[in-house]
Design brief:
- It is built from 16 helices and eleven strands.
- By secondary structure, it is α/β, with parallel strands linked by helices.
- It folds into three domains: 2-145, Rossmann fold, CATH 3.40.50.720; 147-260 and 272-296, no CATH class; 315-387, Rna Polymerase Sigma Factor, Chain: A (Orthogonal Bundle).
- The mean pLDDT is 94.
């Protein structure tokens, strides 16, 4: 019986993880739940899964939850509470699915405590990939990817000599604007951007999928997670989202991992790895799948992908700048403060203003993140005042 702490239990990955755990009651137990401020859902999860404790990052939400549970469940607050939970002896596996940069420090604490990491927070490896992978090696910790694309790569690489890998091919659905003219992208609405054709995800990652930034972040993540050189990682648009990623080998053979677009499949694999267990999840019906199409991504239509690749090539603190600027710009778009195509514009401006620091420490990474967020917020506010 493995005890699991879920960082981000009220998000899309967190709720899917709980569904997986519920299907495997003899293998896993929910030890701790962590949320930001969605206490209505968290209260229901507490009642259903009876965790040993929870952590609520937002102090006000934590106070409200204290009154609701009336002392029946231990409640910790803030990121300090999250960091304490991931280090406790009664936590074996940490599902890291907090959104954005907030997942970095708790993941580091969990690695140092020797916990197995089921990683859904791609930003952790984007902003601190070298640091994270070094710590994992030093502490003999396994980092198992939850993202469907990286789970696919992991499955394709099993039993293979890394030296025989010619390239890794990450697939992307193309999001809701794959066939939208570039000039139309200037006026797309938030609701249109959140209308993903295949996946049900949180707002931030859904916008990242619409801009293809999500795929850019995944390229950086794959680079660190599997030790694949940047020039051996390719992105291909595959609108049907049936092939989740592929690996090409030096003899010309290609392995692909296929499945319906359902995050519960890679989540279960991350928890059972290297084994497989029976599930009741939907299967691919190839007689109904129809044509599977592939095309190159248009870097003019999706400049966020280009910016992510440039940040990876620059290395050092540049991916931190990319991620911080993107988080602020996406938040501003969701609040109708900027247009869809201003997202990459603010990111590019932040990257152009930054002087890369190579081999950054955690302190430098965090300071770069803070300064970038401050800078982009200021740029957005100044532009709005001048309108």
């Amino acid at each position: 019986m493995k005890n699991i702490a879920i960082l981000g239990s009220t998000g899309s990955i967190g709720t899917s993880s709980l569904d997986v755990i519920a299907q495997n009651p003899d293998r896993y137990r929910v030890s701790y739940l962590i949320a930001n401020k969605n206490i209505n859902l968290l209260e229901k999860q507490i009642a259903q899964y009876n965790p040993r404790g929870v952590a609520v990052i937002d102090d006000c939400a934590a106070s409200v939850l204290q009154k609701l549970v009336n002392g029946t469940t231990e409640i910790l607050t803030g990121l300090e509470g999250v960091e304490e939970i991931v280090q406790r002896d009664d936590t074996d596996i940490v599902i890291s699915s907090l959104v954005g940069f907030a997942g970095l420090r708790p993941t580091i604490k969990a690695i140092k405590a020797g916990k197995t990491i089921a990683l859904a927070n791609k930003e952790t490896l984007v902003v601190a990939g070298e640091l994270i992978m070094t710590l994992a090696h030093e502490n003999n910790v396994s980092i198992i990817p939850v993202d469907s694309e990286h789970s696919a790569i992991l499955q394709c690489l099993i039993g293979e000599d890394p030296a025989t890998v010619a390239k890794v091919i990450l697939t992307a659905s193309g999001g809701p604007f794959l066939n939208t003219p570039i000039e139309r992208l200037e006026t797309v609405t938030v609701d249109e951007a959140l209308n993903h054709p295949n996946w049900k995800m949180g707002n931030k990652i859904t916008i990242d999928s619409a801009t293809l930034m999500n795929k850019g972040l995944e390229v950086i993540e794959a680079h660190h997670l599997f030790g694949i050189p940047a020039d051996k990682i390719e992105v291909v648009i595959h609108p049907q989202s049936i092939i989740h990623s592929m690996v090409e080998f030096i003899d010309g053979s290609v392995k692909a991992q296929l499945g319906v677009p359902d995050m519960k499949i890679p989540i279960q694999y991350a928890l059972t790895y290297p084994e497989r267990t029976v599930s009741s999840f939907e299967r691919v019906n190839f007689t109904r799948t129809g044509t599977m199409a592939f095309q190159e991504p248009d870097m003019k239509q999706f400049p966020c992908l280009r910016l992510a690749l440039e940040a990876m090539q620059a290395g050092g603190t540049m991916p931190t700048v990319l991620n911080a600027a993107n988080e602020i710009a996406v938040h501003a778009f969701l609040n109708n403060e900027i247009t869809f195509m201003q997202i990459p514009a603010y990111i590019e401006q932040a990257m152009n203003d930054h002087t890369t620091i190579m081999n950054p420490s955690l302190h430098v990474i965090e300071e770069t993140d803070r300064e970038t967020r401050k800078r982009v917020r200021s740029l957005i506010q100044n532009d709005r005042r001048s309108e």
